[in-house]
Amino acid sequence: MTSSVTQEQPPGRPAGAPQDAVPEEAGVREEEFLYRDASRLQAGSLLTTRTMARRLPALVLRSLRLAWGVDRAATVGLLVCQIATGALAALGLLAVTGTITALVSSGDIAERLWEAAPQLAVIAGATGLRALLGIAVVWLTGRLRPVLARAAELTMVEAALGAELAANNKPGYNDAFDIADRGAQVTPDLVEEAQDVLAAAATLTAGAAVLAVLHPLLLPLLLLACLPQAAAYIRSARVMYLAKVATSGRRRMLSKLRWHMAYQESSEEMRACLAGPFLIGRYRKLADSVNTAEREAANTGARMGLAGALAGGVASAAVWAALLWLLSSGRMSLAAGGGAVFALQTATGSVRGMINGGARLVRTGWYVQDWQNFLDNAHGQAMADSRGSRLLSAVPERFEVRNVTYRYDGAPKDSLSGVSLHVRRGEIVALVGENGSGKSTLSRLLCGLLLPTEGEVAWGHTSTAQLDPWAAWGHVALVPQKFTYLPLTMRDNITFGQGDTGDAALLAACEASGASEMLPHLRSGLNTLLTSEWFGGQQLSGGQWQRLVLTRAFHRQAALLVMDEPTAALDARAEHRIFSGLRELAKDRAVLLITHRLTNVAVADRIVVLDEGRIVQEGTYADLTRTPGLFRSLWELQRRMSGDPA
Ligand SMILES: Nc1ncnc2c1ncn2[C@@H]1O[C@H](COP(=O)(O)OP(=O)(O)OP(=O)(O)O)[C@@H](O)[C@H]1O
């Protein structure tokens, strides 16, 4: 065997293979290709401006409803302020136009000034009030924004928790979540932008009224003049949005890379495996490809904006030329012309405001639409849709998988095929098999976390598909292979909010799992914060965390106890404690035990052996160790490795 490490190369980098070299495929670099989601891009590109314009009122209403739900007073206050601001701007515009008309008309200047005085008072009053309203708008926005954004975020989490576990495994789920999350963040923008457009519309209405009175030709000309710019703004907003959708997978990967490179969980491997420099190289490449896509979008957007501005400029010149023509041909008096100039200026400003606001509204609307799609379950599957709401009348005695087949979404083959298994309360069933044989999948089905593709899982006489899942999971205690440890106190990490029945019950569960041994070393016992990320907290070791997760399961008085590799991180004494206490625990529980340590399954009443998603053997420990087959060959291997001559 030859070493691929040479003197010249940094350790870990194979000779002749620069670490940045990646295969090219049809001009797309490998990593860029990996994190693309063509279906999302296609769905995004199908969302046209017209569709969005149709959906906008409903989107704004839904966001307003959310705002109403979180802060009614601020929502109403903002609406009133914005409409009043628009109305005052309109009033001011009418007054200014009237003043100009009065001032440039013929007659004594003192008389003209006297005539204009009430209008001047209106202008002063309206300006002062608008300033006050402006302050109120800033205050109310500051009050509503954070609450609304948090509320929108929470709706996302609730929707995610309410979705089938299977939805989480769907390709593209996380991208959809991320994009929807951005939608949730900009929900307050949608409300504000809608109000801005409303205020601009009020001013425009006044300007339009003035222009229509001065000459009927001016208003349609003005609107026509603004159309090209409006179209350009909206199209460029769409280009930017599509660039964000196209790069969403890569941007999510970038944030994952940042997380792994900077945070504690991966810090050991980043250093010892020299993964840091490699991942920084990967980060740069991905970031380059995202930058290129976003820069291209920005260039296209700028080109569209420029074309719109040029067309708008030509059209504005035409409007002013029309006004000059009206004045020079005597079709409009000079006094009316003065007012028209001001009204045109203001109305143009309002139209621009509306266009800007409208384009921003549409752009934000695209994101908010993603948020609402997520909530409406366009991407995932709400459990409320796929399951019933039946409650169990009694604690089930028997949990059964009947002729079940399961295939994960997007997977090339079934993970389980025609599997049947049952476990009764008071019984321990062990599930064994090689990696990837389907053990965890089967346990997820038995717990009702997944619903079978074919076949049925029944608790007592009720299929898990008919049960209210949240009520049903009250009967499950699960020790998953990849468990969750949160920066909470030990007490909270054990109970997870599931009814703290008092310290005696907690301590008994700690005793059963061996977690009691670490209690004297924790600063505040059960109330110690289990993390070193915050001051005052204490971090546990891997095995200590596993003891805690076992405590979590033992503390729940659940009829079904599922343990997937529950002792992988435990020392020999701790492992012995778990297995010797299991029979006692199984007195009134149905226990499903998954483990690769085959001597441990002697404790089980029955052992079920899985191979490539099918049950290939079933029997007692004594039967299976005597009978030639998969179990015996794996068991013998382990015995030989441990030096057992038998
Ligand atoms: N979330 C998932 N999405 C898609 N496929 C999955 C998922 N989880 C597992 N699989 C696939 O299902 C098959 C069975 O996996 P499972 O985790 O049930 O095996 P296992 O027997 O528990 O393996 P191990 O002993 O390694 O824990 C594997 O081929 C795996 O690739």
UniProtKB/TrEMBL annotation:
<dbReference type="InterPro" id="IPR027417">
    <property type="entry name" value="P-loop_NTPase"/>
</dbReference>
<keyword id="KW-0472">Membrane</keyword>
<keyword id="KW-0812">Transmembrane</keyword>
<dbReference type="InterPro" id="IPR036640">
    <property type="entry name" value="ABC1_TM_sf"/>
</dbReference>
<feature type="transmembrane region" description="Helical">
    <location>
        <begin position="305"/>
        <end position="327"/>
    </location>
</feature>
<keyword id="KW-1133">Transmembrane helix</keyword>
<dbReference type="InterPro" id="IPR003593">
    <property type="entry name" value="AAA+_ATPase"/>
</dbReference>
<dbReference type="InterPro" id="IPR039421">
    <property type="entry name" value="Type_1_exporter"/>
</dbReference>
<dbReference type="Pfam" id="PF00005">
    <property type="entry name" value="ABC_tran"/>
</dbReference>
<feature type="domain" description="ABC transporter">
    <location>
        <begin position="399"/>
        <end position="637"/>
    </location>
</feature>
<feature type="transmembrane region" description="Helical">
    <location>
        <begin position="73"/>
        <end position="96"/>
    </location>
</feature>
<feature type="transmembrane region" description="Helical">
    <location>
        <begin position="116"/>
        <end position="140"/>
    </location>
</feature>
<protein>
    <submittedName>
        <fullName>ABC transporter ATP-binding protein</fullName>
    </submittedName>
</protein>
<dbReference type="InterPro" id="IPR003439">
    <property type="entry name" value="ABC_transporter-like_ATP-bd"/>
</dbReference>
<feature type="region of interest" description="Disordered">
    <location>
        <begin position="1"/>
        <end position="25"/>
    </location>
</feature>
<keyword id="KW-0547">Nucleotide-binding</keyword>
<dbReference type="GO" id="GO:0005524">
    <property type="term" value="F:ATP binding"/>
</dbReference>
<keyword id="KW-0067">ATP-binding</keyword>
